[in-house]
Write a structure and sequence with these properties.
- There is one protein chain.
- Helix 3 packs across helix 5.
- The chain has 14 helices and two strands.
- The longest helix is centred in the first third of the chain and has 24 residues.
- The chain has a two-stranded antiparallel sheet.
- The chain is mainly alpha-helical.
- The N and C termini lie far apart (about 65 Å).
- The radius of gyration is 25 Å and the shape is elongated.
Length: about 300
C-alpha cells in the first residue's frame, strides 16, 4: 500500500513523495528532526563561541534549535551587539549591567559585573554605574508617581540655584524637579538632589561622562521613561557619543528583554560568578555563614 509521506529537509520545506508507508513513520520523522537539530546545535555552538556571553542554558531545550534561520537571527540580535557597533566591549558590559539592574534581573547583574571586571572595568566604576542607574530609576519612578500632582511653572530663586547643576547637565530642568510635591519640602528636596547626583554628574573622575549618559539612557529605555530617553540621548550625543551608539543602546533593550524572558520561561540554570573582586550581598552571606546553615544550598559552593 502506498501513501504520501512527509520528509523534512534542511530547506525547511515539506516534500510529498509516493512511497511505501512504513510502520515506524513517526519514528522516522522524529529521527529526521533529531538529526537536523543535532546539525543545528553543532552550527549554533560554533557561532555562539564567537559571541561575548556564555551559551545560554536554555539552548538545550528540545526543539529550540530546529529552525536554523531562527537560530542565526537570534544569535545575531539577541546574544550579541551589532557588528557595526563602536561601543567598546568594556563599556557594553556596563551598559548591560545598567539594563539588568533596571530589569531587576539578578543573574544578568552578576554576570555583567563579572564580565565588566574581566574586560577592564574597576570595582569603583561598577559601583558608580550602580549608583547612576539606581538614581535614574528612582527619578523615573518618582516622576510617574507625582505626575498628576501639579507642576511649578515658576521656580523660586532658592530652587533655581539648587538646580543649577541639573540644568547645566541637561540644558533644561526635567519635569520631575518641577513637581510641586517634590520641591515643597526644601530639606527633602536637597537630599533628593544629593542622592540623584550621579544621574547628572558631568565629572570624569570615575567613569567618562559619555558612558554615564549611555548607561542612564539604557536604564531609561528599559523602564520606558520617555523624558529620560530624550534627555539622555541628547546628553550622550553632546558628550561625544555617535548617533549610531545611542541607537544601539536603545535597541539593545530588545536583546536583553528577550534573553531574560527566555531564561525565565525555560527556568534554565543561570551561571552565577563568584565575583571575588567585587563585594556583593552573596559574598556577605557567605562571610557571615548564612548560606552554610541552609543544607544543599547551591549558592554555598558557588560563592564560597
Amino acid at each position: 500500500m502506498t501513501r504520501l509521506i512527509k520528509r523534512h529537509y534542511d530547506s525547511q520545506r515539506w516534500e510529498y513523495t509516493d512511497a511505501s508507508y512504513p510502520r515506524n513513520l513517526f519514528s522516522l520523522y522524529e529521527l529526521t528532526l533529531e538529526e537536523q537539530e543535532k546539525r543545528n546545535t553543532e552550527s549554533a555552538a560554533r557561532k555562539l563561541a564567537k559571541t561575548e556571553l556564555p551559551t545560554p542554558g536554555y539552548f538545550s531545550a528540545k526543539g529550540l534549535l530546529r529552525d536554523p534561520d531562527w537560530v542565526d537571527s537570534y544569535i545575531s540580535i539577541v546574544l550579541q551587539w551589532p557588528k557595526s557597533c563602536t561601543i567598546s566591549v568594556e563599556d557594553r558590559q556596563l551598559v548591560g549591567l545598567a539594563k539588568s539592574l533596571a530589569f531587576m534581573w539578578e543573574p544578568g547583574i552578576l554576570n555583567h559585573t563579572d564580565l565588566a571586571l574581566e574586560t577592564g572595568s574597576t570595582p569603583e566604576q561598577i559601583t558608580e554605574t550602580l549608583k547612576t542607574v539606581t538614581a535614574v530609576i528612582g527619578l523615573a519612578t518618582l516622576d510617574r508617581a507625582v505626575r498628576d500632582l501639579g507642576t511649578r511653572s515658576n521656580l523660586g530663586i532658592r530652587e533655581r540655584k539648587a538646580l543649577n547643576e541639573v540644568k547645566k547637565y541637561f540644558r533644561t530642568i526635567p519635569s520631575v524637579f518641577r513637581r510641586k510635591v517634590v520641591v515643597e519640602d526644601q530639606s527633602w528636596f536637597k537630599d533628593l538632589l544629593a542622592v540623584t547626583r550621579p544621574s547628572y554628574d558631568s565629572s570624569d573622575i570615575i567613569i567618562h561622562p559619555r558612558l554615564r549618559a549611555l548607561v542612564s539612557l539604557a536604564a531609561s529605555s528599559v523602564i520606558g521613561w520617555g523624558e529620560g530617553i530624550t534627555l539622555y540621548a541628547r546628553v550622550a550625543r553632546n558628550l561625544g557619543a555617535k548617533p549610531s551608539e545611542v541607537h544601539d543602546v536603545i535597541k539593545s533593550v530588545f536583546k536583553t528583554s528577550v534573553s531574560n524572558s527566555m531564561a525565565a520561561g525555560f527556568r534554565s540554570p543561570c551561571h552565577i560568578p563568584s565575583l571575588k573582586r567585587y563585594s556583593t550581598i552573596l559574598s556577605s552571606y557567605v562571610a557571615n555563614g548564612a548560606l552554610s546553615k541552609r543544607k544543599g544550598d547551591a549558592l554555598s559552593s558557588v560563592v564560597g
